[in-house]
Amino acid sequence: MERVRKIINAGKAYERGYYGEGIGVAVLDTGIYLHPDFGHRVIRFLDFINQRETPYDDNGHGTHISGIIGGDGGASNGKYRGIAPRCHFVAVKILDRWGNGNTEHVVQAIDWLVNHRREYQIRIVNISIGMVLQAESRERIRLLQAVDYAWDNDMVVVAAAGNNGPGRCSVTVPGISRKVITVGCFDDTKDQIGRSMLKPDYSGQGPTEHCVVKPELVLPGTNVTSCSIPPRMYMKKSGTSMAAPMVSGSIALLLSKYFHFTPAEVKLRLYQRTVDLGLPQSKQGWGMIDIGKLL
């Protein structure tokens, strides 16, 4: 994460006093382990899988995602600090211990978030999951309607592009939504992946079947170190799942400065302040975030 923060210029936000304070991020994933790096900032936990009330993560994916967004790096002396280390979390478990879930739980979760967004100051929804385009059309439509509903109710939705690249139109659902911000990876080359199970150029590429530019943004996603469930304190994971929360954290920093930005204004700001990496548009969309420019 130290490397990542330098790449996206996060230090510029900290120099100006912006750490994501007061911004709630809902993480729809496998749950969350109360890692020391989260302090007391997990303010609500919902479990649509086992209906448990105490925060837990029986997979580790959700904890890793949350650490990228806003772990404070306390257990590593700041080395593995997330992007917005003072944001707070609403952790929603919609995936089981194997990382599987269903559309109904996503719909229920988003309905709950819309109804409680003001109570918990939920401004961002991170969805680092994806449904393949071959999925049953009714399920695809319901999932797309759900993320658009969240967006229309003043929450910025950030979705991973999926790991089914490099073919054309390989972005997963809900990343194909016109409204949400979809995030891929630019560091998915064979050399950087190493012995990972992911194939080279795994990041989902656009455009969508309706010729919408996707993903909008690309960030690092390969071998990212973040918070882990026991017995480890930190571990490395790879995928567009790791890139999306970097955008969620960056948006938390942006909203801590421009609190009243709407989702549309956030998206326009990202479009105006990205860095062109010189990659094909189908791969990089608009380019990469530079937080110094963003703020």
What would a concise description of this structure say?
With 295 residues, the protein is α/β, with parallel strands linked by helices.
What does this structure look like?
The chain is of the alpha/beta class and 295 residues long. It has a single domain, classed as Peptidase S8/S53 domain (Rossmann fold). The chain has 10 helices and 9 strands. It has a 7-stranded parallel sheet with strand order 2-3-1-4-5-6-7, with helices on both faces. Helix 3 runs parallel beside helix 7. The protein is globular and about 45 Å long. It starts with a helix and ends with a helix. The mean pLDDT is 94.
**CATH fold-level name:** Rossmann fold
Helix content: 25-40%
Q: Output the strand order for the largest sheet.
A: 2-3-1-4-5-6-7
> At the fourth CATH level, what is the homologous superfamily?
Peptidase S8/S53 domain
Number of helices: 10
| Stretches with pLDDT under 50, minimum 5 residues | none
The CATH C-level class name: Alpha Beta
Strand percent estimate: 15-25%
Q: What is the correct CATH architecture?
A: 3-Layer(aba) Sandwich
Beta-strand segment tally: 9
The secondary-structure element order is: HHEEHEHEHEEHEEEHHHH
Secondary structure class reads alpha/beta
Oligomer type: single chain
What is the rounded distance between the termini?
A: 20 Å
Average per-residue pLDDT, rounded, comes to: 94
User: How would you describe the shape?
Assistant: globular
